[in-house]
RNA sequence: GCCCUCGUAGCUCAGGUGGAUAGAGCGUUGGUUUCCUAAACCAAAGGUCACAGGUUCGAGUCCUGUCGGGGGUACCA
């Protein structure tokens, strides 16, 4: 199935264009540059071709200032289609398009590029409109869509860790941006509140709880119980798997030596033989690694005499935990009671993290919420003859996939595939969304492929389902980010460390000010909190979401280059200018900006043009749900501002007129940075 | 085995459904401050875009193959 989206994403119903580029309202004054240019070119193009929209997409910002501000590249493909020289086609379009108020006379260059240079008078007019608008000139969409965004979704009984950053932060940014543009965005945190981890806690509570600790610090004690039981279960599983793992190593060793001895003359190996041997070597290494992990896991427990004794006394713990989980699901009164007791405490714990991250959800309907809907949906799948039993499990065999989607295990338990189906139906019944977005890591692609196919089987075709996938956070070694001892890194600790480093930088900077420190201890701490949290979020958002990226504190908090800090710094400098200039903002904002603005120097014009691109950047971001488009835009704004700042004195400008004009630019830049960062879930500070 | 992904400067990364001379930050080298926050700015050096074919007026981008990394692949989520 051809897809207009990134290959790693999955969609159905490509015909629903969700956040398509809208034609602007004829009356809407503030508007985006690209939207406007496309509007102007639409009719002339429609006279030449029936694929005008495709051609309109080929209008884009110029790559090189020599080619003006924007360029249109459609004359070449159009020339081919019409069997005319592209330059002639370009000339014909240029003659018909009405851009005189907006652009200098268009130029045709090279094979048929159309170069557009915006009139400064037009920029001034648009900028003035944006300046006087609370929304900075960004229009709301004409056709708002209802879009459910499913992100974050941690298991409530476990501490959140580094793996939750991306889903949480990217999902939140998409949510904020959609809302800002006027869509009805609904965020739903699909909490894991019903799984095996509760079986572990319940088992732990029944056998290992310290009542006093539980009374004083319930969440901490539950966390301890989870970790303890988890460890014992892992230990037991490791013991059970060890002999298989050892056999696998032996087998790999045998295969390798057989292969090597069959190739007698090693200096005259064929390509295939070389390849086979390397592959066998890798297999051996993998097998050894797996075995060593198991050994380490076993050793860790056995080294600790207390743990070892617990492991001996609870030899059936792996099974028992599953039984506790099954009991919970089956309605065992004691387990239900415990679950109801634990759940609010776990949720509270997780909320403290969300508060730190400044993230709120419209809904938090966890897995448990759908429990009663699983049986009926499975029944329906059977009634419709879509599901059948295989090896005792109830399966959906989907034509495009080798392995089936299992909706009920042979022990009768349901899986998350089942819950996901029920969740989609619930959302459709209650919110009637145009789309549901799943911000989930790329490893679950196949799950979503199957899930979406199953949804179609159930007859739901009037909805777009999309997996917004993202890559892995890596450590310096290029492997998933972990502590040196191999443990997963907790999110809370990550935030603390980020704030700690931000604090150090804030202090260093303030202490080294030529005029002496300006910040109180309280201010320093507050700034460090904002800057530290921002650094972490921004580091994540500024990478292409589909890429893996290497996590690096130093770079993140380095406060140079494309970081949140650089943007926040720009913002703070602007606030400083406005304060030092004793500017009455209310008065400034009521000024007739259109007549006050003057963009004579190129840093002024560049900055102004950059500010006008905000709406285009947002559209582009939502086109494929890529927050790094917005971070790149903000970096460009901040860079333009730095150049402007360097070359254009604001407070001591040559004339009152220029001073006012530059103050307007400063204020609008500050508001744009603030608004842009806000859409990424990031705050600003006035001083830093 | 099959499927999905990635390979761009010393390092970390950008590079819409193909468009003009492949970009940024860090690092390196050199320069800028009696001046609104130098956490800044300017300049230079640094690239066979993994490799080989192909499609095209035009390929980092699309197709095929090869090499290398990561991930997934029947009852975890």
Describe the structure concisely for a colleague.
The chain has 26 helices and 14 strands. It has helices at 33-46, 52-56, 75-82, 86-96, 120-131, 165-180, 196-208, 211-216, 218-262, 271-303, 305-313, 317-330, 333-357, 371-383, 416-431, 445-457, 491-511, 521-541, 553-556, 564-580, 585-590, 593-596, 602-612, 614-623, 627-647, 656-679; strands spanning 10-11, 59-61, 70-72, 107-109, 113-116, 146-150, 184-188, 387-390, 393-396, 405-408, 435-441, 464-470, 473-474, 549-550.
Kindly describe this structure.
This protein is of the alpha/beta class and 688 residues long. The chain has helices spanning 33-46, 52-56, 75-82, 86-96, 120-131, 165-180, 196-208, 211-216, 218-262, 271-303, 305-313, 317-330, 333-357, 371-383, 416-431, 445-457, 491-511, 521-541, 553-556, 564-580, 585-590, 593-596, 602-612, 614-623, 627-647, 656-679, and strands at residues 10-11, 59-61, 70-72, 107-109, 113-116, 146-150, 184-188, 387-390, 393-396, 405-408, 435-441, 464-470, 473-474, 549-550. The chain has four domains: 28-118, Gyrase A, domain 2, CATH 3.30.1360; 146-189 and 361-470, HUPs (Rossmann fold), CATH 3.40.50.620; 196-332; 491-679, Isoleucyl-tRNA Synthetase, Domain 1, CATH 1.10.730.10. The chain is built from 26 helices and 14 strands. The protein has a five-stranded mixed sheet, sandwiched between helices. Helix 15 (416-431) packs across helix 16 (445-457), helix 20 (564-580) packs antiparallel against helix 26 (656-679) and helix 25 (627-647) runs antiparallel to helix 26. The longest helix has 45 residues, at 218-262. The chain is globular and about 85 Å long. The protein starts with 9 loop residues before the first strand and ends in a 9-residue tail after the last helix. It binds one RNA strand of 77 nucleotides through helix 3, strand 9, strand 10, helix 16 and helix 17.
């Amino acid at each position: 199935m051809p897809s207009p989206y990134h290959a790693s994403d999955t969609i159905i119903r490509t015909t629903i264009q969700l956040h398509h580029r809208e034609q602007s309202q004829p009356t809407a004054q503030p508007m985006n540059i690209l939207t406007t240019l496309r509007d102007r070119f639409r009719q002339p193009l429609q006279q030449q071709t029936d694929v005008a929209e495709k051609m309109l997409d080929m209008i884009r910002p110029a790559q090189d200032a020599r080619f003006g501000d924007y360029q249109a590249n459609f004359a070449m493909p159009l020339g081919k289609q019409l069997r005319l020289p592209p330059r002639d086609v370009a000339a014909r379009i240029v003659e018909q398009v009405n851009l005189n108020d907006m652009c200098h006379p268009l130029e045709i260059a090279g094979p048929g590029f159309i170069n557009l240079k915006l009139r400064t008078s037009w920029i001034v007019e648009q900028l003035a409109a944006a300046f006087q608008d609370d929304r900075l000139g960004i229009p709301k969409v004409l056709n708002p869509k209802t879009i459910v965004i499913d992100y974050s979704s941690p298991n409530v009984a476990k501490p959140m860790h580094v793996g939750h950053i991306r889903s949480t932060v990217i999902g939140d940014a998409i949510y904020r941006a959609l809302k800002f543009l006027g869509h009805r965005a609904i965020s739903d945190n699909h909490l894991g509140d019903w799984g095996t981890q509760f079986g572990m806690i319940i088992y732990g509570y029944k056998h290992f709880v310290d009542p006093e600790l539980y009374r004083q610090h319930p969440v901490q004690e539950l966390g301890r119980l989870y970790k303890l039981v988890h460890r014992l279960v892992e230990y037991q599983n490791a013991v059970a798997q060890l002999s298989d793992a050892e056999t696998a190593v032996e087998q790999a060793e045998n295969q390798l030596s057989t292969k090597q001895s069959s190739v007698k003359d090693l200096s005259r190996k064929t390509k295939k033989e070389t390849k086979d041997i390397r592959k066998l070597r890798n297999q051996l290494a993998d097998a050894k690694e797996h075995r060593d992990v198991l050994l380490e896991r076993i050793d860790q427990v056995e080294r600790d005499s207390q743990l070892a004794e617990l492991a001996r006394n609870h030899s059936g713990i792996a099974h028992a935990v599953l039984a506790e989980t099954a009991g919970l699901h089956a309605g065992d009164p004691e387990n239900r009671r415990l679950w109801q007791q634990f759940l609010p405490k776990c949720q509270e714990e997780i909320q403290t993290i969300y508060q730190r991250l400044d993230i709120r959800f419209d809904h938090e309907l966890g897995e448990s919420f759908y429990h009663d809907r699983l049986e009926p949906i499975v029944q329906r799948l059977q009634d419709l003859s879509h599901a059948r039993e295989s090896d005792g499990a109830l399966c959906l065999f989907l034509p495009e996939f080798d392995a089936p989607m299992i909706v009920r295990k042979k022990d009768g338990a349901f899986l998350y595939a089942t819950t996901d189906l029920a969740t989609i139906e619930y959302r459709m019944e209650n919110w009637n969304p145009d789309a549901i977005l799943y911000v989930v890591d790329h490893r679950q692609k196949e799950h979503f492929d199957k899930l979406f196919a199953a949804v179609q089987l159930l007859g739901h075709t009037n909805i777009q389902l999309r997996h917004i996938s993202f890559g892995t956070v890596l450590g310096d070694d290029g492997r998933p980010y972990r502590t040196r001892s191999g443990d997963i890194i907790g999110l809370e600790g990550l935030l603390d460390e980020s704030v700690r480093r931000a604090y150090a930088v804030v202090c260093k900077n303030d202490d080294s000010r030529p005029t002496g420190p300006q910040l109180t201890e309280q201010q320093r701490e507050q700034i460090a909190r904002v800057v530290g949290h921002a650094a972490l979020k921004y580091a994540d958002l500024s990478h292409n979401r589909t890429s893996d990226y290497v996590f690096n504190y130093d770079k993140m908090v380095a406060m140079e280059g494309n970081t949140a800090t650089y943007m926040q710094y720009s913002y703070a400098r602007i606030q400083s200018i406005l304060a030092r200039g004793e500017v009455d903002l209310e008065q400034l904002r009521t000024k007739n900006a259109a007549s006050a603005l003057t963009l004579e120097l190129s840093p002024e014009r560049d900055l102004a043009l950059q500010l006008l691109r905000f709406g285009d950047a947002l559209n582009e971001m939502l086109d494929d749900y890529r927050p790094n488009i917005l971070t790149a835009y903000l970096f460009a704004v901040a860079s333009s501002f730095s150049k402007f700042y360097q070359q254009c004195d604001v407070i001591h400008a040559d004339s009152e007129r220029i001073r006012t004009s530059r103050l307007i630019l400063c204020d609008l830049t500050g508001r744009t940075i603030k608004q842009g960062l806000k859409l990424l879930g990031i705050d600003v500070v006035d001083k830093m």
